[in-house]
């Protein structure tokens, strides 16, 4: 009980067993023990948060950093600064929107060089599965990507085309062979259309629930045929839930996530012309939102991650038909989800499971996702009762465009520790490589 570098005490420490009063003892970069809240401990620094909550650092497995190549959209320095301010201590970068996209080892090396020395939180990487690169998947895995992202419909950038069903099957056979995971943007291109006009309603009608459900059905079938582990990204439509639940009940290795914007925003609330709300798949109705929360309650949806996809303001114009689709929320996800979760009777332990423990398990990132001995001392001091409006000018991502501007959210991130050190603007994050 002596010689600790840091002790953080809280009457609301969120552990894998739930909330408890505890003192978290840190030596070097690791949590070494949990003690009673008032235990006398010898430490270089001893912080008592009292009734403020102590959370594990969040793990956001769905972040579009866009560097190199489109760093004017977002970059590692700005994205990881925003992450730390939002209580996120680990992100996984998506393989598209950067140039080159991460679809071979050479492109991955370029990504690693771009990220080196810039990151304020830890960063891992997804590789990409695109037509013609099936032979690149095993080398990418060996080099350290955590899994593979594919699209079933056009991605929005021509250098990252979608897989056909037969191409997806070939990729999944290879991925199953080395025990990897495919994360899938699931919309059926045959059921998507072009918006008939510039309004949000016309955009929403162009990407119907049936397009999402059809693609999820295809992916679930392919998972069964190949034995591969698959994860459905950013589920926006509750029409997918029964398909997912049936697959999970059969024991299929199929998981799914949703995002803060699908849980907190609704189509009925989208103002005319406010293209900051545009994303693919789209934000749907209030009734649909309630069903997504029920999917989380039942465990059909296991992760809540940002799908942080910013762009320059000029690309979010002129209307919903033409604007870039992407929500920028990396800094705000915890507050947004907690605002709605607490109103619906969920606790901080639920939020931590969805936003830290389960994403870490999805990407097989060891030492992250929970406050327990042996894990990295990634910690967040969080005030769960504070409230305040979002001011886009105070956001740290490169372009402060967000649908949350002016919205009152609950909670405040007060301090973020990465491996036992408070994040203070210095780029002390590490690049996390997967199983090699």
Automatic annotation (TrEMBL):
One of the protein's GO biological processes: purine nucleobase catabolic process
Protein name per the record: allantoinase
Enzyme class: hydrolase
One Pfam family in the UniProt entry: Amidohydro_1
Keywords: Hydrolase, Metal-binding, Purine metabolism, Zinc
Organism lineage string: Bacteria, Bacillati, Actinomycetota, Actinomycetes, Streptosporangiales
Needed cofactors: Zn(2+)
EC number: 3.5.2.5
Methyltransferase among keywords: no
Domain Amidohydrolase-related: 54-423
GO cellular component: cytoplasm
Metal-binding is among the record's keywords: yes
InterPro entries in the cross-refs: Allantoinase (IPR017593), Amidohydro-rel (IPR006680), DHOase/Allantoinase_Hydrolase (IPR050138), Metal-dep_hydrolase_composite (IPR011059), Metal_Hydrolase (IPR032466)
NCBIfam families for the chain: allantoinase
GO molecular function, one term: zinc ion binding
Entry's family note: Belongs to the metallo-dependent hydrolases superfamily. Allantoinase family.
Species for this entry: Nonomuraea deserti
Subunit record text: Homotetramer.
Top-level taxonomic group: Bacteria
Pathway(s) served: Nitrogen metabolism; (S)-allantoin degradation; allantoate from (S)-allantoin: step 1/1
């Amino acid at each position: 009980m002596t010689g600790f570098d840091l002790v953080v005490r809280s009457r609301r420490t969120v552990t894998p067993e739930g909330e408890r009063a505890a003192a978290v003892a840190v030596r070097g970069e690791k949590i070494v023990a949990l003690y009673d809240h008032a235990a006398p401990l010898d430490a270089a620094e001893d912080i008592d948060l009292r009734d403020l909550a102590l959370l594990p650092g969040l793990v956001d497995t769905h972040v579009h950093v866009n560097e190199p190549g489109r760093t004017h959209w977002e970059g590692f320095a700005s994205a990881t600064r925003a992450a730390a301010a939002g209580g996120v201590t680990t992100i996984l970068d998506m393989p598209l929107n950067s140039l080159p996209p991460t679809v071979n080892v050479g492109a991955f090396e370029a990504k690693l060089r771009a990220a080196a020395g810039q990151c304020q939180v830890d960063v891992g990487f997804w590789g990409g599965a695109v037509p013609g690169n099936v032979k690149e998947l095993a080398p990418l895995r060996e080099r350290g990507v955590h899994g593979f992202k594919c699209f079933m419909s056009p991605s929005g950038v021509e250098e990252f085309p979608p897989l056909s069903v037969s191409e997806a099957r070939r990729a999944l056979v290879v991925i199953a062979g080395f025990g990897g995971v495919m994360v899938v943007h699931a919309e059926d291109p045959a059921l998507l259309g072009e918006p008939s006009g510039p309004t949000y309603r016309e955009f929403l009608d162009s990407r119907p629930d049936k397009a999402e459900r059809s693609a999820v059905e295809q992916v679930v079938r392919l998972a069964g045929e190949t034995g591969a582990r698959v994860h459905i990204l950013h589920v926006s439509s509750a029409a997918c839930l029964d398909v997912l639940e049936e697959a999970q009940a059969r024991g299929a290795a199929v998981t799914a996530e949703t995002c803060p914007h699908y849980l907190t925003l609704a189509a009925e609330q989208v103002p005319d012309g406010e293209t900051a709300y545009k994303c693919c798949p789209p934000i749907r109705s209030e009734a649909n939102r309630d069903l997504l929360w029920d999917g989380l309650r039942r465990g059909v949806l296991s992760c809540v991650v940002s799908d942080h996809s910013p762009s320059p303001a000029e690309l979010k114009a002129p209307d919903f038909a033409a604007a870039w689709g992407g929500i920028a929320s990396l800094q705000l996800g915890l507050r947004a989800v907690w605002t709605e979760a607490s109103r619906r009777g969920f606790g901080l332990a639920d939020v931590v499971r969805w936003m830290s423990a389960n994403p870490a398990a999805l990407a097989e990132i060891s030492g992250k996702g929970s406050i327990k001995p042996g894990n990295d001392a990634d910690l967040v001091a969080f005030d769960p009762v504070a409230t305040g409006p979002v001011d886009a000018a105070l956001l740290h991502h490169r372009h402060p465009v967000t649908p949350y501007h002016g919205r009152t959210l609950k909670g405040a991130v007060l301090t973020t520790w990465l491996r036992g050190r408070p994040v203070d603007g210095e780029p002390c994050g590490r690049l996390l490589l997967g199983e090699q």
